[in-house]
Fold this sequence. Notes:
The chain is an alpha+beta fold. The protein has 2 domains: 2-127, CATH 2.40.50.140; 158-305 and 378-483, BirA Bifunctional Protein, domain 2 (2-Layer Sandwich). The protein is built from 16 helices and 18 strands. The strands form 4 sheets. An 8-stranded mixed sheet has the order 6-10-11-18-17-16-15-14, sandwiched between helices. A hairpin with a 2-residue loop joins β16 and β17 (413-420). α10 crosses α13 (356-372). It is elongated, with a radius of gyration of 29 Å.
Amino acid sequence: MEALDQLVKQRVTKLEAARKTGPDPYQTAFKRDGSIQELLAGFKEGQTLHVAGRLTALRGQGKIAFGDLKDQTGKIQLFFSEEILKEKYPLIAATLDLGDIVAAEGESFTTKTGEKTIRVSEWHLLSKALRPPPEKWHGLQNRELKYRKRYLDLMSNPETREAFQLRSRLVSGIRRFLDGRGFLEVETPMMQPIPGGAAGKPFKTHHNALGMDLYLRIAPELYLKRLLVGGFDKVYEINRNFRNEGLSTRHNPEFTMLEVYEAYGNCASMMDLTQDLITVLAQELKGGLKLKYGGKTIDLTRPWPTVSFAEMARQRYKIEPTDSLEEMASKIPQIALEGFSGELKEGKKGLARIPRNQLAKLVTELLEEVVLEGEEESPIFVIDFFSFFSPLAKSITDRPGIADRFELFIGGLEVANAYTEQNDPIEQRHSLQASQDFGGELAQPVDEDFLEALEYGMPPAGGLGIGIDRLAMLLTQQESIRDVILFPTLRPEEKEAKA
């Protein structure tokens, strides 16, 4: 810490020198001739160029010096000479440090080693950096510090910048794909009087002027389906959701989802749409249908296989979709349940003390693990979920207790969830009321305004949700969700992290 303090003091001294010898070292603007990438692409010797960026290297050799200037798009070399700059040449050493934002003007030329360079005739300090950048060769390696100080991570690690640039192109590609198919992008409330559309614990806030409690949305689903009632047949929203739950390599309390709804569609049409969308994105962003993830090669070539949740539950545990929740739990071996809950130490009697919503979550997660065994090397649609766990989906007519729903897993990550939407207001009321029996914070609430909207008639429809963060993890080969969210939620810092 002492060493850092000393470096900061040295830079403050240079800042004072800059104030005395030139314009304000914190300028308001500079007119560039283009980004560095654009200048390099159109590079011709003998041009007068105006460029700006961060100074990342400075190599002095007596009466000449070379520097590297970087912006978001690339790097270009600067050549400083005492012969050209005269009395301003000594100010380079007296006022500049690595990390400073600098502007330069000069003639373009190519060195003997083939380096495209600007022979600087004028330079300006645009913003003085009072702290040194992360160490040049090793970058920023401390993962905790990478997340807390993302600006340093972006500054020093090219692979981080590339990952987030790809994520941005991913979102643009989704919009382009859906717009091209006639879907309308919409926005729905982030603050809702009733947190519905998914099972999750919401964040609660209070609106002073209205004197009412509101909740940050856990999903936009019920508002998007209101739009189907209103006559918008094809809608989507790239939406920010919030769930007051735990942190993990796959979960962040604030996350981004794509939700798509299409009138006159169903679960099968959403399956086709999902395969179309993800394969198009993979080809656009990765150049093909084979991805590296988690040490494995994932082949996105269609068609993607399906596996029946209900059939696996029957084979492994003799569970039937018409069983009660307690019957399901009673059929699962004690040793398996203990892996999911410390409340089960006293054998099956422990089931009575677990809230039903937590028991439902436990059973679902356990069965999903069974379904996914050995299936991580290819995308897989898990179908035939129990209606018990799917209160917003229609059930399959001739299969009691089975919802017309799928979840998509790629590389072991749950990426998408879709179903044929329930458009019968009476059945929807019954299923939402039944979900209240689970109790606890994860129960689906009964939203009377949404039910009233259904009573005006919602066309048959398919609905799809895709986790943007999870999809970005796959395409950027990141195994933690924190590496695809610019500013992930973190626990309070207990002590200063060191680079």
